[in-house]
Recover the amino acids of this structure.
């Protein structure tokens, strides 16, 4: 295994004290709870940036992040430390539930649908949902359905806005969906890429948002997707987020979390519906 090197060729070591300082800082700024098992991850993911800046230690880099008045380096740091695993129609059970229990009970011309994807990563989740809406409602307009999609990672937000995906990341999409909702684009490399069509994009507004900061939107939302996001947060922060989500949901609205996640004991005013789905009572 290659060692992490300083710019002068010597090994770049991450001490437990430096790890403690970095993890405390990231918890404060982004709500991400990093335990000691994540120490190799922090060491590896920040090493390249430290070398690029010509720095000699993780402590020096942390000082640089704190001293940056623009906070651009903080954004880069968060981008390096967050994992963004996603795919189209991931955890399809949720999309089936939305189709059967929400969309087929709804006349969007009388009652438009408003949704928030909180942790949209590179955009597959909001675009998957929009495809589902397009399939259910033939003449769907921008007024019928609007979706807010946010993520803490500036890199992921840019990818979601661009809406360009490599062919091998779209293998779970039916061929008919690729023809209807994507356009093949020329790429300098050999891999085929597809771009989301504008008539799909028009329903999705994408923005960078730190979930532990103030939220500019007021809601209310018919449902909120916060899937595979709260696994990075401690219990106190998860409880706070669930409470804030509840406030932004319409009565009868739903909160979806990841199938591997649990908010048992943190429900507040929400009620359990089925695994990873919770409802705000009417």
């Amino acid at each position: 295994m290659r060692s992490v090197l300083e710019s002068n060729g010597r090994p770049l070591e991450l001490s437990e004290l430096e790890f403690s300082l970095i993890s405390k800082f990231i918890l404060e700024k982004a709500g991400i709870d990093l335990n000691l098992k994540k120490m190799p991850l922090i060491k590896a993911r920040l090493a390249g940036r430290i070398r690029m800046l010509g720095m000699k230690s993780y402590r020096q880099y942390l000082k640089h992040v704190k001293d940056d008045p623009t906070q651009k380096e903080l954004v880069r740091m968060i981008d390096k430390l967050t994992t963004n695993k996603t795919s189209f129609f991931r955890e399809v059970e949720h999309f089936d539930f939305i189709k059967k229990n929400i969309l087929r009970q709804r006349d969007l011309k009388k009652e438009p649908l408003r949704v928030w994807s909180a942790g949209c990563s590179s955009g597959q989740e909001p675009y998957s949902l929009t495809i589902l809406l397009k399939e259910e409602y033939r003449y769907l307009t921008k007024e019928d359905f609007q979706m807010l999609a946010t993520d803490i990672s500036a890199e992921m937000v840019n990818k979601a806005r661009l809406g360009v995906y490599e062919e091998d990341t779209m293998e779970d999409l039916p061929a008919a969906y690729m023809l209807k909702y994507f356009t093949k684009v020329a790429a300098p490399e050999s891999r085929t890429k597809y771009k989301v069509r504008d008539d799909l994009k028009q329903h999705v507004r994408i923005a960078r948002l730190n979930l532990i900061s103030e939220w500019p939107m007021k809601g209310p939302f018919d449902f909120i997707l916060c899937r595979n996001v709260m696994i990075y947060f401690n219990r106190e922060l998860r409880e706070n987020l669930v409470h804030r989500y509840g406030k932004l949901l319409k009565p009868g609205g739903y909160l979806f979390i990841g199938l591997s996640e649990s908010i048992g004991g943190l429900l507040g005013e929400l009620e359990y519906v089925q695994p990873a789905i919770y409802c705000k009572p009417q």
Q: What stands out?
A: The CA atoms of residues 221 and 249 lie 5 Å apart. Residues 16-81 form a domain with the Chemotaxis Receptor Methyltransferase Cher; domain 1 fold (CATH 1.10.155.10). The chain has two domains: 16-81, 92-279.
